[in-house]
Specification:
- The protein is an all-alpha fold.
- It has one domain (about 1-280).
- The protein contains 10 helices and no strands.
- The radius of gyration is 20 Å and the shape is globular.
- It is a multi-pass membrane protein.
Length: about 280
Amino acid sequence: MAGRTVLKEKSRAGSFFSATLVLWTVSLWFEILFDRRFELLYLVFGALFYQSANSAIRFLISKEPLVVNTAVSLLHSIITSASVLFVLANRWLSHGSDGMFEHSQLFGGTWPWAYAALCFSCGYFAYDQWDMLQYRLYSGWIPAILVHHLVLLICFTLALYRNVTINYLILTLICELHSIFLHVRRLRRMAGVRDAESFIVKVEWTLNWLTFTFARFVPHILITAKLIMDASKFDKGVELPLALFGMAAMNLLNVFLGIDLFNAVKKESNYQKNDHLHHE
């Protein structure tokens, strides 16, 4: 009975989020074909690239959907992190830091390659939404991961359609540096490497905490503070409320993620201690 309930929940959630993905796709192609926004093709290229990576990993490494999905997520985090760092370094080296973080730049400006990088990353979220729906890699009546991706797709594409807040969104994506180690940890555990005392696991956890702090937690707080300080510079509209709401949600999720990481460290340490006691 419980199994049937779970399947019904997954089916309902799948139907809803599949419909939203179809609507999003129609919207995207309308912009590309009828409004002649061909720069949005970077988004399509991104989705196709990550789908191709999925197929390659499935063929060469593993056919397990969760392993494949996590491996592609790791690839996305690496590429997006590199893209964000490239965009920032390129802007810094070309024009220096003068005015780089002014409101006019962050809200209405677009650093070189920032638009393409954001499109490509957005393409990943479309691919990943489809992959999770296809293989039912979610749970619950309202799956948090599908909601997360839907919100990102809406926010990113609205920004891309209107060509505003591109640089703000690029800055938020610096958190993908931390996501690298989240995905590495997941793949490591899937591979059965769970020795909390091993050197590689200790290094991974060190990098996990460092990037969580300096690539996710602190940057998102600084972005939120910048939005609040520049609130009077926003035109009347939905941009500021949406941005503040989005950053508030991100900061809240970061707190929960930090708690989850802390609990994961404790769990792995306790597992290791119990394992040693069991073998004594």
